[in-house]
Amino acid sequence: MKFLSMILTLILLAACNSVYFQPNSIDPTQVFYADRGGYGMRKSIKQKMDERGYNVIVGTAVSSRDATTNAESIEIDSAVVPDDARYIVKVSERREKFNPFWCPFNGFWWWNFNISIADQKTGAELLAWRGRACQNSALRMLDDILDEMEVKNVSQQ
Questions:
Q1: Closest-CA residue to 127 (of 114, 111, 140, 112)
Q2: pTM for this predicted structure
Q3: What does UniProt give as the signal peptide span (predicted)?
Q4: DSSP letter string, 110-143
């Protein structure tokens, strides 16, 4: 019975992720625009892309306004996407959860996120990923996905 429950758990976890990407579609020498701020996922993605040698920028702030509800106050910034930005990286994330039981050797944080990478030149969405994962697993998956998405011979294009 334990074996069956372990298999069922693994199947359910695999169903938490839905990834679509176009292989050989990203030129790593181009400029990537990403949103500012965010929880750990958004920050970690920018760091991971920076580690890979991508030129990731956050644009120029244009305006800021406060939105207040009964429960909280939110500051909303508007930014200009630079003209030389070829790719837009959009990360939507829910508040990360500290999960010492499920992710003890995998970053401790449980992430629930959507990631999209779009090509500004063609208008095509190159990556659409809806996922849930522990911190380190999500970053390893991102690394593997980016390996597949990078154009192998940039100089020949």
A1: 114
A2: 0.78
A3: 1-21
A4: EEEEEEEEEETTT--EEEEEEEEEEHHHHHHHHH
Q: Which domains does the chain have, with CATH numbers?
A: 18-151 (3.40.50)
Per residue in 23-42, pLDDT tens?
999 999 999 998 876 667 78
pLDDT band at residue 13 using 50, 70 and 90 as cut-offs: low
Tokens linked to 145: 């996905």
User: Which residue type is seen at 112?
Assistant: N
Is a pLDDT exceeding 70 seen at residue 14?
no
Q: 145: helix, coil or strand?
A: helix
Q: Find the mean pLDDT for residues 68-80.
A: 76
pLDDT digits (tens, 9 = 90+) for 118-157: 999 999 999 999 988 888 888 999 999 999 999 986 554 4
Among 67, 62, 66, which Cα is nearest to 36's? 62
Cα separation values, 127 from 49, 91, 108, 115, 145, Å: 14, 11, 26, 7, 9
* Coil, strand or helix at 5: helix
Task: Give the whole-angstrom CA distance, residue 63 versus residue 31.
Answer: 23
